């Protein structure tokens, strides 16, 4: 009998499909013939239930900035666990964490905590509507902003339904999305200033906010240009809409987030998540006091009532504060340098193997494409079935050789990774390129 026949992960999955749709609660962990089950993580390594150890370059989809089971986080959270996990009262940990995050970015005058990045984006959109009294939002084509109806429009549009380049269609992700939700989302082409401004002008009296991810993963994992960001900031100011920045993923790029890259741009509202939780579920909405006031329950008239049972729970607040205090300016700079090193070495591997490929990304993230021309926005980043199959092969090759990647062949580095781990990944990646070439 094969080793796979005796796999503990396979046995668990056989049980899981009886009680979970598809056997999972997160689509991104699906693998064929079944997902593997983690039993422990330490530093940059994850061990599955069958004893296989892998180097983790995915870090729970960019949420673990210090890898697994960081001793300082474990110690602080263990102490808090003994005192309690959630109360119908405020906690000092919420205050201290709020103070710390607000100190990192001058546009963060107030902050409200919640439990996920999706929830943070949802709150940002609803706050913008409450502030402006307008129904519509604008977002970049292909950008992922979570699973809220409005946020997910045109997240995975295709050539057959995405419309004209200068007027992208609003395409539903989930079947049954209300038509009105689609009509209330204006889709703009990422990094195209002229076309974006033209589209915004067509809806200028209806737009509550323009929502931008400055490093959209699904739109190529390329940074927004300063010209694009500055044009949107100017347009929103002139037309009474809010400039809403989604930094759920990109906050890792600078001490104050990717916003640090754009000194001439200050957002009105910013959504946060992932790394600020210290490994626990988290979301947050931050912004200028005048805009965050719409959430203030002490006001006689409350434009946007918002609460949550586990929002600002002391476990997340404690773990998050420890994690972010340790992700100081020096740590941010060091991790971004490692990202630069990784992209440079991957480019060298692409060149040395003669592979038709490229690498995108910025800061501590990168993504490998099997394209000769580097994507600049969603349409040039879009992959047909053949490209997807080859990327899946490459991701599986890396996985079976001891490396965990995000499913798009992307990586989000952690502070416990170093050049040795990157060199090992690049060596395996080069071998994967060679295998792909041999198949064609």
Automatic annotation (TrEMBL):
EC class: isomerase
Required cofactor names: pyridoxal 5'-phosphate
UniProt cross-references to Gene3D superfamilies, sorted A to Z: Aspartate Aminotransferase, domain 1 (3.90.1150.10), Type I PLP-dependent aspartate aminotransferase-like (Major domain) (3.40.640.10)
EC number: 5.4.3.8
Highest rank taxon of the organism: Bacteria
Keyword tags: Isomerase, Pyridoxal phosphate
Pfam families, alphabetized: Aminotran_3
A Gene Ontology molecular function term of the record: pyridoxal phosphate binding
Signal peptide: none
Sequence similarity: Belongs to the class-III pyridoxal-phosphate-dependent aminotransferase family.
Record-given protein name: Glutamate-1-semialdehyde 2,1-aminomutase 1
Source species: Mariniblastus fucicola
Gene: hemL1
């Amino acid at each position: 009998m094969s080793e796979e026949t005796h796999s503990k992960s396979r046995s668990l999955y056989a049980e899981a499909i009886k009680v979970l749709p598809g056997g999972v609660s997160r689509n991104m962990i699906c693998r064929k013939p079944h997902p593997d089950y983690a039993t422990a993580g330490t530093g940059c390594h994850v061990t599955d239930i069958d004893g296989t150890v892998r180097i983790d370059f995915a870090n729970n989809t960019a949420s673990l900035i210090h890898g697994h089971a960081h001793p300082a986080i474990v110690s602080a959270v263990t102490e808090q666990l003994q005192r309690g996990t959630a109360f119908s009262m405020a906690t000092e940990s919420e205050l201290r964490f709020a103070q710390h995050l607000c100190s990192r970015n001058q546009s963060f005058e107030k902050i409200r905590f919640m439990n996920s990045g999706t929830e943070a984006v949802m709150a940002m959109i609803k706050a913008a509507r409450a502030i402006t009294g307008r129904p519509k939002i604008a977002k970049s084509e292909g950008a992922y902003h979570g699973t809220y109806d409005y946020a997910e429009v045109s997240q995975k549009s295709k050539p057959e339904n995405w419309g004209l380049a200068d007027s992208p269609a609003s395409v539903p992700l989930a079947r049954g999305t209300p038509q009105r939700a689609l009509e209330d989302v204006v889709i703009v082409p990422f990094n195209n200033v002229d076309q974006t401004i033209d589209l915004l002008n067509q809806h200028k009296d209806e737009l509550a906010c323009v929502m931008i991810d400055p490093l959209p993963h699904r739109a190529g994992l390329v940074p927004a240009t300063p010209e694009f960001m500055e044009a949107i900031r100017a347009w929103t100011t002139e037309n009474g809409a809010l400039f809403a920045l989604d930094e759920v993923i990109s906050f890792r790029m600078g001490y104050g987030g990717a916003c640090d890259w754009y000194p001439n741009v200050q957002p009105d509202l910013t959504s946060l998540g992932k790394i600020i939780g210290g490994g626990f579920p988290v979301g947050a909405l931050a912004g200028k006091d005048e805009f965050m006031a719409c959430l203030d329950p002490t006001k006689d008239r409350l434009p946007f009532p918002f609460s949550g049972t586990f929002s600002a729970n002391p476990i997340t607040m404690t773990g998050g504060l420890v994690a972010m205090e340790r992700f100081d300016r020096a740590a941010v700079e060091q991790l971004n340098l490692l990202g630069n090193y990784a992209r440079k070495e991957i480019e060298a591997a692409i060149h040395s193997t003669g592979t038709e490929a490229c690498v995108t990304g910025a800061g501590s993230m990168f993504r490998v494409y099997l394209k000769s021309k580097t994507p600049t926005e969603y349409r040039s980043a879009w992959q047909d079935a053949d490209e997807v199959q080859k990327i899946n092969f490459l991701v599986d090759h890396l996985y079976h050789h001891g490396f965990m990647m995000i499913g798009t062949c992307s990586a989000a580095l952690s502070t416990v990774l170093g050049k040795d781990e990157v060199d090992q990944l690049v060596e395996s990646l080069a071998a994967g390129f060679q295998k792909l070439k041999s198949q064609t």
